[in-house]
Amino acid sequence: MKSAPYFNKLNYKCYLFILLFLIKPPSSLAQNKVINFNFENENLKLVLKKLIEDHELTLIFPEEVNQTIITTKCHNCSEDNALDSILYNTKYTWSKRGSQYTVYELVFENNYELSGQIFDKKTGESIAFANVYIPEIKIGDVTEYDGSFSLPSINLHNFELIISYIGYKTEIIQINF
Amino acid sequence: MLFFENTPILEVCREIERTFNITINFSKSEIKNVKVTGLIETNDINSVLSSLSLLTRQNYKLEGEICTIF
After folding, report:
1. Is the overall model pTM greater than 0.90, yes or no?
2. What is the ipTM, given to two decimal places?
């Protein structure tokens, strides 16, 4: 802490230089549509809409992306890099034709639907609004009133399934078949 | 450019039919209800139709003023 004044004096000119340097780039960055973001557990639909709104990306996507939650960040990305980063580890991919971007679901062969029902171990009562989630592919569902859930188009054969609900211990189940 | 929010593909197609003066037919009726959100650039009919076919996971062919999504 005692060396701080000395440090400030020495670098005063350098700081001025750096400031001038920082003021210049944004205008040129804007022209090249450089994209920056940092999303944590954000709804994929909101993220894609933000790309459209903030960067005027001509992008269309299926409404069902609102069932996917993502965590992603991008620093000085191009539009293509931004979409790669956003859709990484999701069941979606993108394509560009002319200036039109389309986000669509990747369909793998031998996909299947995983469905089940969540009950209280002691009372046997079905649990509504419990979260069921596969972290590896970031796909999840919330249980219905009868405790049922379904996770469509899964192509994994070994994965962890996380079941959580307020007031209950979170269950992590390893599924292999 | 056309913006859609949580709009059934059928409605999107009606807009595109008006914009390009074409007719779009579906061979599978269930895909008409697939909902989409986003911005469509209306410069090029083939970019738009290719986008619609990806969203519905179907193919398309454009013959004159008739487009079939199958």
Report:
1. no
2. 0.94
